[in-house]
Design a protein that fits this description.
mainly alpha, Four Helix Bundle (Hemerythrin (Met), subunit A), about 80% helix, about 0% strand
């Protein structure tokens, strides 16, 4: 039963989206910061537990990134709708994630089943997205953070979103070429 703990943590992170979105909709930024902080920390905890105790599962390989993406996209969108972040950033992050999902599904259907394995750049990108969300929520809660920090995080997330998206395209194109065209049986 304990081996399902990482999946339960990921599922709870996914479910935290509903109260988090509501808190952001009603401008309850301090409470939203607390929920987002717990959700962000849970991303580290579930991965650590899964790897440390060997409780890695196929379900967890899908559940963890889905919970991450839903958490990040929902929070970024709500913060943009509330005027705290540029909508163009949300569109960029959404486009990258849509590209990744479309690429993964295409690879899975056209070439062979795909093992879910996030790229290192993607992990850094997700971490920076969570840091940006927490920094913006801290400012919205009344913390005095330098505007240059928020602006720098926005640009860094935008840049890494583009670079990590290109990384996925490059890697999957190479794999597709090797699998599909170099093995003409």
């Amino acid at each position: 039963m304990k081996r399902h703990l990482p999946n339960a943590i990921s599922a709870l992170r996914g479910l935290s989206i509903l109260p988090l979105a509501w808190l952001l909709a009603v401008d309850a930024y301090e409470a939203a910061f607390a929920v987002a902080l717990l959700a962000g920390l849970s991303d580290c905890v579930d991965g650590f537990i899964a790897k440390r105790f060997g409780w890695v599962s196929a379900l967890g390989a899908w559940l963890d990134p889905i919970a991450d993406k839903l958490f990040v996209l929902t929070t970024l969108l709500m913060l943009a709708l509330n005027g705290w972040l540029p909508m163009d950033l949300v569109k960029l992050v959404f486009a990258r994630d849509l590209l990744i999902v479309a690429g993964a599904l295409s690879y899975h259907w056209l070439i062979r089943p795909l093992d879910i394995a996030p790229r290192y750049l993607s992990k850094i990108n997700t971490l920076l997205e969570i840091v940006l969300v927490l920094a913006v929520l801290a400012v919205a809660s009344g913390w005095a953070l330098p505007a240059a920090l928020i602006l720098g995080l926005i640009w860094l997330v935008a840049l890494l979103t583009i670079v990590s998206g290109a990384d996925y395209i490059w890697i999957w194109a190479q794999r597709a070429y090797r699998e599909k065209w170099l093995r003409l049986d």
